Amino acid sequence: MVRGVRTFPQFWKDYGSKISLVIILFLLSLVLVRYWLNSREVTQQAIAEQLTSARSVLEQYRQGNAGSSVLDDDAQTRQFLVMASRQLGDASIPIVFLGPEAETRIRGRVKEKVEAAVAETLKNSSDPARQAEATLLRADLNLHFGLLAFAESTAAPATQPTTKAFDKTPEQYFESAAKDYAELIAQAAKIPARTATAARFGMAAVHENRDERDKAKAIYDDIAKSGPDATVKKLAAARIDLLVRIPANPLLGPPSKPKPTTAPATTQATTGPAATAPAATQPTATPATKPSTQP
C-alpha cells in the first residue's frame, strides 16, 4: 500500500487526464440521456394535450356548438355567438344562428385543428394507444362531415353557401371513415377496448348511412353480445331496436339503377337518384360512443 501511495503521483501524471476525460464523458452522457428523456416526456405530453383538445373541439361541433378555440381568429363571429349564448342562458356557443358562410369558416377551423392533432400524433407518438385515438378522431371527423355534406346536398339552393363548403362528396367522406374504422377493428387486440368498441360503433354508423342495415345490425349484435361492459351492450341493443322500429330509408345509400323496360324509348325510368331527396331527409346515425383521450 505504501508503495502504491508513493507511485500514485506518477500514475496520475501518466493517466490522470485520460481518467478525467472518461469521467467527464460519462457524466455528460448521463446529462444528455436525462435531457432526452425529459424532452421526450414533454413532447408526448404536448401531443396528448393537443389530441384531447382536438377531440373536445370536434365533439362540441358535433353537438352544434363552436368551441372558443376555433373562434380565436374570428372576433366578430365570436362576439355574436357569445352574446347569443348569454341570451339563451347557456354556457355553450351555438352555431345554429350563423349564416352558411360563417358556419363554413368554423367548420374549416375544426377540420384544421383535428387534422393537425392527428398528423402530429401519428408522426411523433410511439404509443399505439394514442395513435389509435388519433385514427379514431380522424374517422369520426370524416363521418360527421359526410353527414353534413349529405344534408347540404339535399338542401334548398337558397340555403347553400356560395363558397365551396366541402371538398369531398358524402360517400367519399364515408369511405375515408370506414377505412380508418376497419383499420382499428383489425387491431382490436392491440389497442384499448374502448377505442376498438368506438370504431365498431363508427363502422356501424357508416353502414346505417349507406342504408346497409344488415351490416350495421350484425355489428350491433356482436357488440351487444361481447361488448366490454354493460353500458356499451345497452347502447348496441338500443341501436338494434331503432333499426327494427324505423323502416328502411330508400333515400339513403347509392341511387338505384333503372330497371330494364320494354316500353317505348320516350318512356323514362321512374327510379331517380338519391339527390332528389327532400331537404328535410338526411342520415342521422353517428357513433354511439366516443373516447376520452387522457394525457
Automatic annotation (TrEMBL):
Residues 248-295 are annotated as: Disordered. This is Uncharacterized protein. Keywords: Membrane, Transmembrane, Transmembrane helix. It comes from the Bacteria. Residues 259-295 have a biased composition (Low complexity). The chain crosses the membrane at residues 21-37.
